[in-house]
Amino acid sequence: MSALKRTQMHPLLVLFKDFALKKGIADDAYIVGGAVRDMLSGVETKDIDLAVAGDALEISKEFAHYSGSSFVLLDSAFGIARVVKDGVFLDISAMRGHSITADLADRDMTINAMALPLREWGSESPHVIDPFGGGKDLGAGIIRMVSERNIVNDPLRIIRIYRFSAVLRASIEKNTRQAVNKYNVLLKDVAVERIAEELRHIMSLGNSHEIMNSMEDDGIVRVLFPEFLSSPGNSMKQGIPFYGQCEGILADPAPYFPFASEHILAFFEHTERRICLKLAALFSGEARVMGAVSRLKMSNKEAEFISFITSGHKNILSMAAAGSGETGIIRFLKVARDNVYPAVVLAAVGAGGWILPFLNDMLSLYLKEVMPRMSLIRMITGDDLITEFGLTPSPQFKLILSELEDNILEGKINTKEDGLEAAREIISRFSRSAGPRQNP
User: For all residues of the chain together, what is the average pLDDT?
Assistant: First the structure.
């Protein structure tokens, strides 16, 4: 892969080249890393990294002022800043070492250890600086480390090697794989936030099951997820196939859920939801997944989502085994709402074909009956209880409204008149059960 394919002009990079030429620093500025890799692959990229000689932070501030952009400090110790304008950005860093070759020698993989002189960007035949054969490896589909020393210096590069293997569908070169096996224990010393970010990148991919298998074979999964070490039996060997099955359902839910497949696909357009579901599947829906969620410092929203689908799928399995009727299922759906989609996917993982009829009946009930009725839930409100029945706000309100919601979702109430009549009966029943008040 010798020719640099033409790509769309990055607006901030156009401005930076003009700025660098006027300031006289263009000869010591280079496009580096993933941007060059993507250009060689003909992939459009918005992520542009620049390496510059001199004070990168001061250069970034001057360029932000010159271009009317925002300056964002990323790392003061390593001299890295981001300049942002109109939704696009440049990351500008100080050149490592005393030359661009020294800078590239300090990078993770050969495919990320290439540079393009800024002055030549946009020309017909730009020269790519490629001292480690990254272009050849990219063309051959090979992931190769630049050096073992670089892995030891930053063990997070171990996970990045697997991530790029998955992203590019490239094989990991033999010596590189031996090195990641040798040094994977060093991942224990990497900040958990950095590990979590790389795991998100991996788990957001549609083919991450393959790379998870490779990481398990190389002993890395148990380092990344020490929760498995306290698991009884051989749950890790079970969890990864479950993870793969989950990924397969997310890729094409139609064979499993023909009636609801479009709804499931739409629900999982949010990457975070796919990541959370895969993590739950990896732990086979066990409660210890919450230990991993806490250790990886996932958000409260993600923790609540994972907690619900892990408990929800167990409820579904119990309902299916007991042959629960429509009323029980509707009351589950009342709480679950659209979270029924991840719960049924997780219930289908590893359960076998016996449960699919029950899951499809549940989804059909949700889409055909429960969802249309949900629009009616607000037909009776607390204000109605006050104006129609003279009640004063109290904890009883919540009980009355909850029972009304159940009746609506079960199809027993279809109009406001029906709802008011049902409310009257509920209030009367509550009054009778409360009995006469006793004077103190």
Answer: 90
**438 has pLDDT over 70:** no
Q: Distance between CA 289 and CA 118 in Å, rounded? A: 47
Do β-strands 47-52 and 115-117 pair in parallel, antiparallel, or remain unpaired? unpaired
Structure tokens that stand for 125 in this block: 């035949």
Nearest by Cα to 142 from 174, 183, 180: 174
- Are residues 101 and 208 located together in one domain of the fold? no
Dihedrals phi, psi of 142, to nearest 5 degrees: -125, 135
Residue 172 lies in a domain: yes
From 301, 329, 359, the end of a domain falls on 359
Element (H, E) at 142: strand 142-143
> Taking every pair of C-alpha atoms in the chain, what is the biggest distance, in angstroms?
96
Question: pLDDT digits over 166-186, tens only?
Answer: 999 999 999 999 999 999 999
Identify which of 134, 21, 35 has the alpha carbon closest to the alpha carbon of residue 90: 35
Q: Which domain holds residue 82?
A: 11-133
Q: How far apart are CA 121 and CA 309, in angstroms?
A: 49
Q: What's the structural domain count of the chain?
A: 4
Q: What angle in degrees, to the nearest 10, is found between the helix axes of 192-203 and 156-167?
A: 10
Instruction: Judge if 206 and 87 occupy the same domain.
Output: no
In sequence order, which ranges of 100-226 are alpha helices (DSSP H)? Answer: 100-105, 134-140, 148-153, 156-167, 174-183, 192-203, 208-217, 221-224
How much is the pLDDT for 123? 81
The CATH number for 26's domain is 3.30.460.10
State which of 174, 196, 224 marks the end of a domain. 224
Does any domain span residue 367?
no
Q: By percentage, how much of the chain surpasses pLDDT 90?
A: 68
Q: Do residues 258 and 213 share a domain? A: no
Measured from the Cβ of residue 137, the count of other Cβ atoms closer than 10 Å reads: 21
Per the CB < 8 A criterion, the answer to whether 225 and 239 are in contact is no
